[in-house]
Amino acid sequence: MELDVVGLSRLQFALTALYHFLFIPLTLGLSILVAIMETVYVMSGRPIWRQMTKFWGTLFGINFAIGVSTGLVMEFQFGMNWSYYSHYVGDVFGAPLAIEGLMAFFLEATFVGLFFFGWDRLSKVAHLVVTWLVALGSNLSALWILIANGWMQNPVGATLNPQTMRMEVTDFYAVITNPVAQAKFVHTASSGYVVAAFFVLGVSAFYILRGRHVEVAKRSLTVAAAFGLAASLSVVVLGDESGYLSSEHQKMKLAAIEGMWHTEPAPASFTVLGIPDQEARKTHYAIQIPWVMGLIGTRSLNGEVPGIDALVKLADVRIRQGLTSYDALEQIRALKPHGPVPPELTARFEEHSAQLGYALLLKRYVDDPRTATDAQIALAAGDTVPQVAPLFWSFRIMVALGMYFIVFMAVFFYLSAKHRLDAYPWLLKVAVWSMPLPWIAAEAGWIVAELGRQPWAVEGVLPTAVAVSNLGIQAVLTTLIGFIVLYSILIVVEMKLMLKAIRKGPEPEAGKAPGLASPLIGATPALRTAPMISTE
Q1: 353: Cβ–Cβ under 8 A, 6 or more apart, which residues?
Q2: 3-class DSSP assignment, residue 19
Q3: Which residues, including other chains, have CB under 8 Å from residue 530's CB and lie 6 or more apart?
Q4: What are residue 458's phi and psi, to 5 degrees?
Q5: 34-48: per-residue pLDDT in tens?
Q6: For the residues 165-169, what does the mean pLDDT come to?
Q7: Rounded to whole angstroms, how far apart are CA atoms 104 and 141?
Q8: Which residues are CB-contacts of 8 (< 8 A; sequence separation ≥ 6)?
Q9: How many whole angstroms separate alpha carbon 44 and alpha carbon 37?
Q10: Do 402 and 236 meet the contact criterion of CB atoms below 8 Å apart?
Q11: How does the average pLDDT of the chain come out, rounded?
Q12: What is the CB-side half-sphere exposure of residue 207 using CA atoms within 13 A?
């Protein structure tokens, strides 16, 4: 990544997005787990389940509040660092964001407060409804944000208006039913459930090892093990669906993930391990499993998975086709103030308008793409290859951890069914030390999703290099340093608050004063998952 305005803007958005995404998965998963625990309380009437709900709800609240404070920054960056991006596609992704604000945002704003302050003011059933609405609002936020992000991965239901130079929605139903968006939502939500399950399981294991709050810990661990096993299995299944959709809509991302430089005979092999070398255009010491990549990518034995070199050649063709559309577009814009545009000129623009974004890749090398040389076109085509090594290893880290999660949760589910959760202290220690792993997997998955889209801010439509604001390097660098300092302080605050609550542990219901102070006092009750609409 070059340290110019584009590179620094990408780095800033990537760091703030990845940092904010530390909080989103835990919020999504804990909201569901807390709702499950309160459901058991309402059905059984046993006070210990109310105690559990309040304790895990407090940890949810701390994470929720810090997530809000870091997430609000994301939306400001679209206007500050990515103003042309906001102008170009604002009509499309603005609609899902508006719905997210009207539906999920206000739903959370209303019911989060009721969850914390309504224990002694609402009936048990009414409070349970509130808790489930908090969980629903959290997940609806993710849904609408990921609909917008999914459009950036697979832009459907919209076309460019050559008069305004803005993408406009032509089929909103196609936008919200975008298969890439739906697959991203269920995969992201499931990964959040795994994060929360490991968090609850790890904290519960810590209590059992210390001999504190054992009854609460055992019940929490049982719920987390069952929930985590189901979530871990669903992550693998839904991740496979995401891979299949990539073979349809983001072929270059799939080839880069595999380090597949040359198209292999169908069905392609899956590279388990290797050392991708982007300069040599080769993956050294590759260990492969025959047929697997073909089955994953095409769901067939005769479907071809194109390699990076073949896709670069295709990009060269698309750039040349896009230049025809770009030339017609410039003529249309020149004629706009003087009268109607000839139909034949509009037809020439529309003939290859789907490839216009490829012509814009040349903006990195020349002000007017129509004057680009063959060498510059070749360079622009080469730019369609993302950074292979980070994608290759991030994907394999994510997959390896996913397999570990299934085995791990299956073991604890079995032990909980046999009522032997405290029979193997070493396993409980492993549970404590395994707590960070789902976060690592989630961050690796986000790197795969967003870095794999480069050089596009919107796949095939708007290059990242064109999407930035007209800023100086010093301005971007100053804000980048400011964010690093601020977020470093916030992570210390988050850790101290969480550790303090965990050390204190769940309080008995007896002697608990009504209207206990909430960690959300003074915080804006809203879940903002803006990094899911990442220009990185």
Answers
A1: 159, 160, 325
A2: helix
A3: 17, 20, 71, 74, 75, 145
A4: -125, 120
A5: 999 999 999 999 999
A6: 90
A7: 5
A8: 473, 476, 477, 480
A9: 11
A10: yes
A11: 87
A12: 24
pTM for the predicted model, two decimal places: 0.89
| Secondary structure string (H, E, C) spanning 322-369 | HHHHHHHHHHHHHHHHHCCCCHHHHHHHHHCHHHHHHHHHHHHCCCCH
Cβ atoms 26, 65 nearer than 8 A? no
The secondary structure element, H or E, covering residue 274 is strand 270-277
Identify the CA nearest to 202 among candidates 179, 221, 174.
221
pLDDT tens profile 137-153: 889 888 988 998 899 99
Length of the chain: 536
Give the contacts of 244 (CB within 8 A, at least 6 positions apart).
Answer: 296, 297, 298, 299
Alpha-carbon span 486 to 463, nearest angstrom: 30
DSSP string, 84-109: HHHHHHHHHHHHHHHHIIIIIIHHHH
| Amino acid at residue number 11 | L
Residue 225 CB partners (closer than 8 Å, separation 6+): 197, 201, 409, 412, 413, 415, 416
Structure tokens at 169: 């929605």
Enter the tokens of residue 531: 């990094």
Assign 119 to helix, strand or coil: coil
Q: How far is CA 315 from CA 46, 72, 259, 278, 470, in A?
A: 63, 37, 18, 18, 27
364-401 pLDDT per residue, tens:
999 999 999 999 999 999 999 999 999 999 999 999 99
State both tokens at 502: 């965990």
Q: Are 149 and 181 in contact (CB under 8 A)?
A: yes
State the Cα–Cα distance between residues 41 and 516, nearest whole angstrom.
Answer: 19
Selection from 3, 21, 4 nearest residue 449 by Cα? 21
* Amino acid (one-letter) located at 530: A
Cβ atoms < 10 Å from Cβ of 375: 9
Alpha-carbon gap, residue 223 to 401, rounded angstroms: 21
Distance (Å, rounded) from C-alpha 238 to C-alpha 241? 5
Residue 104's pLDDT band, with cuts at 50, 70 and 90, is low
